[in-house]
Amino acid sequence: MACRSHRGPVETGLIMTAWPIAIVVTAPLVGRMADRYPAALLTSLGMLVVSIAFLLLRLLPLHPSDFDIAWRIALAGGGFSMVQPPNNKAMLNAAPKHRISGASGMISVSRLSGQTMLDK
User: Which key words are in the record (predicted)?
Assistant: First the structure.
């Protein structure tokens, strides 16, 4: 049975803010880790954390509190922050020096293309 929580747009937006806040909090640590550990390890660990967070979101009780939702979203955001920086760094390091700016542009184009395709 589906639950309708009747949260308004402002309340929903505030709950979703947990994702970028978690990224801001974890970014300095992940940046240092990306310099020390292989991208495959950090990306895999990050995807594991995101997967666990989404599973926890799926297993929410019928009438969750805002905090119940927000901490799970924050966990997913923190996990995601372990995926993107090491992945982008690995892609840029794989590009020849004279093509790094083009590779950076392609990362942006592919990200925005994916977002655009999901909107339709």
Answer: Membrane, Transmembrane, Transmembrane helix, Transport
State pLDDT tens for residues 22-57. Answer: 999 999 999 899 989 999 999 999 999 999 999 999
Paired tokens of 83: 């995926």
Query: By three-state DSSP, how is residue 117 classified?
Result: helix
Extents of the domains making up the chain:
21-119
CA–CA gap between residue 111 and residue 80 (Å, rounded): 14
Whether 71 and 18 have beta carbons less than 8 Å apart is answered as: yes
Do 33 and 89 meet the contact criterion of CB atoms below 8 Å apart? Answer: no
Q: Is the pTM of this model over 0.70?
A: yes
> 34: number of CA atoms within 13 Å, CB side?
21
What's the Cα-to-Cα distance from 79 to each of 25, 82, 105, rounded to whole Å? 12, 5, 24
